[in-house]
Amino acid sequence: MAEIVPTILTADLNAYRRLYESFNTFTKRVQVDICDGVFTPTLTIDESNLWWSQGWAACDLHMMVMNPSRHLPAILKLKPHLCIFHAETNENLLPIFQTLKANNIQAGVAILKQTFPKKIEPYLKAADHCLIFSGKLGQMGGKADMLQIEKVPIIKSINPNLEIGWDGGANLENVRELAHSDIDVINVGSAIATAVNQAETYKALTVEAEKQGVLI
Known about the structure:
Blueprint: E1 3-8, H1 13-23, E2 29-35, E3 58-64, H2 68-78, E4 82-86, H3 94-102, E5 106-111, H4 121-126, E6 129-133, H5 151-158, E7 163-167, H6 175-179, E8 185-188, H7 190-193, H8 198-210
Parallel strand pairs: 1-2, 1-8, 2-3, 3-4, 4-5, 5-6, 6-7, 7-8
């Protein structure tokens, strides 16, 4: 069964706090997007300014950054549940994965639309999580490229134990198809963050993802 994970993408620390506190009332897992303004066209809050209280939802970090090692010291202090770096960065991610795991942080690799899974096979074998990125870097509210689902069986053939995530354009219209495509985690940004009732929207997405039978 796919897990719905609300996503936070903001340059405003007050907005981050409001969203996290809201999300924490109805979910046990949240993803925070960090953009460096280099790998992405936009800049968000810096991971060194993040915080969360004990008892809050588990936090995943999606690091859309060009130089992962520069961000590693702050991440190790935060100790997120999972930290995801992009395969398309300027650095070799394998030593970074080793460091994360040595500090009890799960290691994730994200792949952009143009990246074919076979080309990053060493990363997929070493990681705990692979994020299929279907959106626009540093932006919410994009349209999902459902053709990216075709990467799922390729990724599974390389590492059947990987948790597979989806990021980009997930909503009530497509979440059922995503959930029935061997995807484990569906990150949802604007569909939840901009909803009038975030908790009810999260519940509706979860119910839709759990539906069985033929897609109509």
